[in-house]
Amino acid sequence: MTFNKYKIRNIGLLLLLVTGLFSCESNFKEVQKQNFSEFAPSGEADDFNMKYTDSGRIKSILISPKMLDYASVAFPYTEFPKGINVTLFDLNNKRTFVTSNYALTYKGTDVIDLQGNVKITNELGQVLETEQLYFDQKNEWFYTEKKFKFTDPKGISLGEGIDFSKDFKIVNSQKISGEIFQYN
Description:
With 184 residues, the chain is an alpha+beta fold. The protein has 1 helix and 11 strands, in the order αβββββββββββ.
């Protein structure tokens, strides 16, 4: 078996190429890791308790076991993965209570998306229950297209789609599909 200088050179180049490819593999994976960024919150809080005031008067209190703030993403939002308890106060200090299993607040729209066992009650004994509800903070208005149950001291109504003011003084039901009971 005879080797000429061209075969030795070709084998040497092949070995050099294979060695170069294997050494670049680990570098390539490191570069990929550097360009990969996890979708992580820019802020996080446990046992979150926030009081919102306007002109020295408390307008609302928000309590949640966990708050995740995604302020640095393209469409910033705050997530409450373990639910919320909110107390809203009107001008006469009458309270409305809101609870849900999960909530999102969108910073650019001032809309809160409440999900899972959403329940709103007030001091007059009115209760609204649904699976998803939106709250427009700017206009202090709730709305949903989901099924709901509205209980009032005067009766109970079931339906699908409702919007109302935070104090239940204005209520617009789109589809009443259940029975309305009147108690004397």
